[in-house]
Amino acid sequence: MCSTSLSARTSTKVHFVAPRLLGVGVCEGIVNEVDVRVYDRERAVCDAIRHSGKMDPELVNQAIRSYVVDPAKNVGRLVDYARVFRIQRKVESSVGVWL
Predict the structure, then answer these.
(1) 3-state DSSP call for residue 15?
(2) Phi-psi label, residue 7: left if phi above 0, alpha if psi -120 to 50, beta otherwise
(3) pLDDT tens digits in sequence order for the chain, 99 residues long
(4) What is the pTM of this model?
(5) Which of 60, 95, 63 is CA-nearest to residue 79?
(6) Contact between 42 and 78 (Cβ < 8 Å)
(7) DSSP conformation class of 57
(8) Separation of alpha carbons 52 and 58, rounded Å
């Protein structure tokens, strides 16, 4: 068994997520015949906007632009998630200008 911590082996940064927010936007899929749980596109956009101060602004903009042109987007769900994360105004000002 290796005793090296995750952050020492990769450039991944671990951060805390409130338990009430963990299940928001979780969906399941199959990758290489393995069941995985991932966040949906609306949750990913909300996370990018929530953490925009810690991310490269170009990555945040790319996430928003990709979402806006995605035919599978669900704006109602995005607004619901924004309400849960308490970032409605940020989402409206970031995404609303593109819709």
Answers:
(1) coil
(2) alpha
(3) 334 444 456 677 777 889 999 999 999 989 899 999 999 999 999 999 999 999 999 999 999 999 999 999 999 999 999 999 999 999 999 988 777
(4) 0.80
(5) 95
(6) yes
(7) H
(8) 10
